[in-house]
## 1
Amino acid sequence: MAADTFDRAANAARSASAGDPAAGAYAQACEQLNKEPRRWLVTGVAGFIGSHLLETLLKLGQEVRGLDNFMTGHRHNLEQVRASVGEQAWQRFTFIEGDIRDPQACARACGAPAPVQATCSGDGEADAGTDTTAGGGVSSGSLAERGRAGAGGPVAAVDFVLHQAALGSVSRSLEDPLLCHAVNVSGFLNMLAAARDAGVRRFVYAASSATYGDHPALPKVEQHIGAPLSPYALSKYVNELYAQVYARCYAMQTVGLRYFNVFGPRQDPLGAYAAVIPRWIAAMLDNQAVHIHGDGATSRDFCFVHNAVQANILAATGTDPAAVNQVYNVAVNARTSLTQLHAAMQQMLLAARPQHVPLAPHYGEFRAGDVRHSQADIAKAARLLGYVPTHNLAQGLRQTIAWYVEQAERA
Ligand SMILES: NC(=O)c1ccc[n+]([C@@H]2O[C@H](COP(=O)([O-])OP(=O)(O)OC[C@H]3O[C@@H](n4cnc5c(N)ncnc54)[C@H](O)[C@@H]3O)[C@@H](O)[C@H]2O)c1
């Protein structure tokens, strides 16, 4: 990790935590939101990144609606946010259980008029998902009091959409490209259409570094992309194209955030499609050797989830017209090989848990569809959004490992 990246992140974190107004755009955006709360929709709210967006927004005094079908997200993520923010803040959250493949669920989540559908049965409410206040069956919050979508009444349009719901994982998309398309492309289009119909101010969506495909240049600069290497990569690129078309044809404001390997607490360590950091922590805590795909030299720009949250808030609230209808890299501009990551994790786990027994990793086949090296140029996000990552890999990993260790000790 480059020393300058470390210093910059540490300085930003220090000044932000000191409440210094010169801390930059993020501190100012948070302050403004605190003064003038907005209404947000977070799709994929029960997932990893979505639940962190929810937590930060509730802590900033915002009203939040969340949409999720629990395909890969979990109720326990929502319960953890609830425990973290407290009951009072939790009252500002309304949860809608629904699927982005259903245009009616998307419309209700955005607060748009319901789309007319030939296939719609009955009153059109029952099959599109159920609204509950957060966590399922918890007492009503402020949005709910104004009219719950599930009760058939209208809900107010949201100001901002942070669209995170999608099926991640390159491998999953190779196994089921049709499902990937249905959720990541058709579901995305449903959300975009609903956001337009609701007249939302801005639609911020999770794009991906997978869009760089086979382009060899490092670091990755937004305008130079290669051919997609998987259905997942293609689906995320199609998202960007649809967002551009909606901006051009319907004067919508959209911002795409190309996340690079985001990690942090609450990322699912289980299943065949789990991301590398939580999967490895789970293996290490279970005294299992880690399996590395390839020779270990594969490298990534690992991005702590708080940086991704910052990018979302800046993307939604930024006032520079030049910053809108753009895509941005979201990472830290550092590159770490899998072997280096493994060594750093072993060291940190040992520090957090002296009884930990470090094991050498097993190296195996490369995985189909994987990009060999990845590193983000974050100058565009810095220039137009004022994005300054607050956490580098080491800072983020320490917090993440501490969280997983605590979970394991509780279990
Ligand atoms: N985590 C990363 O490193 C990374 C990198 C690049 C892009 N992204 C993108 O960021 C977004 C969030 O990723 P994450 O890591 O939090 O994943 P996640 O799987 O934890 O979260 C995705 C959420 O979307 C929900 N969802 C899936 N299909 C749905 C559907 N049809 N209707 C409603 N909800 C649905 C899931 O239940 C889950 O809660 C995704 O769009 C992903 O493609 C993530």
## 2
Amino acid sequence: MATPEYEGQANYAYHLDAGKFSHFLQRHCCETLGVRHVRADVTDVRKDESGDIVGLDTEQGIAIDGDLFVDCTGFAALLIGKAMGVPFRSCADTLFCDTALAIQVPYAQPDDPIASHTLSTAQSAGWIWDIGLPTRRGVGHVFSSSHIDVDAAERELRAYIGPAGDWTFTFAGEAMRAYEFSLCGDGGGGATFDTTVAIEDGGTLAFNDDSCGLQSHLEFTAPYTGTFTIRVGSYHDEYQGTFLLDYRKSDVIFRNGYDG
Ligand SMILES: Cc1cc2nc3c(=O)[nH]c(=O)nc-3n(C[C@H](O)[C@H](O)[C@H](O)COP(=O)(O)OP(=O)(O)OC[C@H]3O[C@@H](n4cnc5c(N)ncnc54)[C@H](O)[C@@H]3O)c2cc1C
């Protein structure tokens, strides 16, 4: 190596969309460099009598013969591990992080700023990555499963994301009028995940977690005429599932504790 370890010549790096980049490489290799791209699932590895790999058989019935094979099957290690018997060398004694939780976080507004760098934040037994993409953030927690369990790691990730992953709506409330917001499906809506619902105006005015099973229901009397935020969140399986929020506005206005 020309440079000492960990001292790269560039003090910057690029974010690339891995899917798009691989398509770009594929096109470049096939159209410019004369590479033949075969998309197939390897089922068998053929070896000669000396034990060298001479060909691959695939589920699609295409046989691939060659002189040089490079195993790019990731953890499957089909050629190097399964066929050649080279054992996996664990680095668990020095690389403790062995598990990752990943989540896609929508921007609150379409014109929210996009971070031009990865934010890496240390956690109790790992770290959280936060990568700004054009349409969303990619956030994840990579951690040592020997030092923290998945539930606790998920709580740390959730605490990091905070309310950014929740869905928010605003509504115009009328002073002393009652409103109902329901994810219980009682008005035809409902939710497919463990929800929370809150009404906010900078602070939290009302909150409900489990009103009907794991879904939420709120009755709220607006303390003044103004705009309020309804926040639908997920208690456990963050941001997974669908919901339809039922909304009811009462005909009744409460004044001084009396219906009127
Ligand atoms: C959540 C997460 C986030 C990450 N983020 C980043 C990041 O931001 N930047 C970064 O640099 N790295 C990142 N990494 C790491 C990176 O993805 C891996 O290091 C990299 O993908 C490993 O590449 P690979 O080619 O060895 O294996 P893989 O990417 O796993 O590729 C193996 C391929 O072999 C194929 N295959 C398996 N069996 C067969 C078969 N029988 N026949 C044909 N094909 C087969 C699979 O379909 C797969 O396409 C991330 C990893 C994870 C899990």
